[in-house]
Amino acid sequence: MFKSKFSKKRNSTSSEPLTCSDSKIPTISSPTEKPKKKRKASVGSVFKGIGEALTFEKEKTAEEKAKEEQENLMVLQLFKQNLECFEKSSEPVLVCESLTGYKRMNKAKITKRDLVFAMCGEPVYKGTIKIDCWSTLKMPIDSYSTKQKRKCLIPLDIEKDGYCIECDESSIEQKTALKNMTIVDFESEFPFYKEFFYRNPNVKHYLSKEENVICSIQRFKEVSRCILRNNKGVIRCLIGKEESEKPQCYDKFFNEPKNVICLDNTPELDDALFEMENKSIITHFKFGVIYVKPNQNDENKIFTTSAKDCSPAFWKFLDLIGNKIELNGWTGYRGGLDVKSGSTGTHSYISHTHNFEIMFHVSPLIPLLQDDGQGLERKRHVGNDVVVLIFKEQSNQNDTFDPRILTSHFNSIFIVVTPDKPTIDNIHYKVTVCAKAEINSFPPYLNETGTYFHDDIFRDFILRKLINGERTAMFSPTFRLNYKKTIKEEIKNINEQFYKQDLFAVLK
Q1: Each residue of 66-86: pLDDT tens digit?
Q2: What does the pLDDT read at residue 63?
Q3: What is the C-alpha radius of gyration for the chain, rounded to an integer number of angstroms?
């Protein structure tokens, strides 16, 4: 039986409510930290017989039932304290038709993984209020407006060449809850397998080498928690009693039941699936930063601009969104920069926000090679960044930045920031965002005018815009294809290592 970490920290009589934004929610261990091996699964990796394969858990004792009831009351208390998180519930990616009446969270309201984990206990799947905080939820999508846009920091004719522009709040058709998301698809970084499946003897794994599928199931009395891995990706879902009795026959999991085997949760297989999840969790980002002088529209000249030619307003802006660090001996995330010999410069800028670490590839801080009129070393780093921050200084309103002058095919999103003046006393900025058309719009959206003050609100806006831009880009066809190739190969490797097809292992 799942024992909520919340239940260990608080009791149901506590007078202090626990909410989505409550800092007193118990801290979950780091997703990269492997839990201690407290329990071992049975020695046999292959179940001998269907009856044994479908035996998931023993009958609960009276004491266990009492604890379960206590946890049920506590989870329901959490639900009542966080009703706003369940308003306008999001739809699950994979729906089991036999399960109805479940309340799910609004994807835009998911900001605390500890709250989600606390509400993922067994009792929430039954009773008068049935709560599903387990299933993967669909990503809401807003579209770019087709209305005529006002003049901005990017030439408007770029839309004809497969780009979309956001210059103010009217640029986006804001019809979903996407605008309310702090971090896009935030729960994808939660270590669900580690927290609920790892070293759990009640977990069974269904493998199909032929279909390249691995389905992990933790079965309860009325419903089962599942993690489905196939060539399309990784999806969490709930299934009912009928589906959990023969998951190999559930057509949303497998096409051919006879090729499916059921394996116990052995330490070796458990570790392999733990590592697969661990590698998919993102804890850091790297973004390019380019300084563009007034009337500068040549790529080589932009990438060969020296640090001393950058304006005081540029460095003031970088000091707002990040912190300058010395690269030599740097032990944090380095984003591909050299922290030993100084080949990529002596200093750079880093930042931290929403538990993510950021390394900026600041073009003027990366040394130029001798007789290099193209800035090749700078292009090597900035050219491999999905999102690029452009600090553009204007000579007049017609002096815009055109992303088409950059030859990198990898650069996909451009956030253009222009200061009101190039001096150290600048306190105002204009912002325009441009992205390739295959990338959906992403929050936070620009305000009514697209102008901002030099303050912490603007800092948070820029950092979240950068992060959500890259996270949204990963859903685009180009980047999604690379993701699917990686997942396919990882599942294939695990299947080849653990799939054992014999007369007893095959479920018929």
Answers
A1: 777 777 777 778 888 899 999
A2: 82
A3: 26
CA atoms of 388 and 505, how far apart (whole Å): 52
List, in order, residues 6 or more apart from 309 with CB less than 8 Å away.
Answer: 293, 364
Amino acid at 356: F
Count of other CB atoms within 10 angstroms of residue 347? 14
Alpha-carbon gap, residue 388 to 289, rounded angstroms: 6
Contact between 239 and 477 under an 8 Å Cβ cutoff? The reply is no
Cβ-contact 399, 295 below 8 angstroms: yes
- Reduced to 3 states (helix: H, G, I; strand: E, B; else coil), residue 107 is helix
Fold of 282-473: Rossmann fold (3.40.50)
**Can you tell me the mean pLDDT for 333-339?**
97
SS3 content of the chain, % helix, strand, coil (to 5): 30, 20, 45
Q: Which two tokens stand for residue 237?
A: 């879902």
**Residue 420: pLDDT above 90?**
yes
Question: Measuring CA to CA, how many Å separate 473 from each of 268, 281, 481?
Answer: 34, 16, 12
13 vs 347, residue with greater confidence: 347
Q: What is the pTM of this model?
A: 0.87
Which tokens sit at 329?
């001996």
The count of other CB atoms within 10 Å of the CB of residue 312 is: 14
CATH architecture of the domain covering 191-279+475-507: 2-Layer Sandwich (3.30)
Per residue in 147-202, pLDDT (tens digit) is 888 889 999 999 999 999 999 999 999 989 899 999 999 999 999 999 999 999 99
Work out the end-to-end distance of the chain between its first and last CA atoms, rounded to an integer number of angstroms: 29
Structure confidence by residue, pLDDT tens digits, 365-418: 999 988 888 999 999 999 999 999 999 999 999 999 999 999 999 999 999 999
Task: Tell me how far apart the alpha carbons of residues 245 and 6 are, in angstroms, rounded to a whole number.
Answer: 30
Whole-angstrom distance, CA of residue 446 vs CA of residue 449: 8
282-473 shares the fold of 191-279+475-507: no
Q: At residue 496, what are phi and psi to the nearest 5 degrees?
A: -65, -30
Question: Do residues 133 and 4 touch, judged by C-beta distance below 8 A?
Answer: no
Can you give the residue ranges of every domain in the chain?
66-131, 191-279+475-507, 282-473
Largest CA distance in the chain: 80
CA distance 67 to 3: 9
202-216, 225-239, 461-475, 494-508 — which is least confidently predicted? Answer: 494-508
Report how far residue 119's alpha carbon sits from residue 103's, in angstroms, rounded to the nearest whole number.
Answer: 12
> How far lies 66's CA from each of 69, 77, 311, in Å?
5, 17, 67
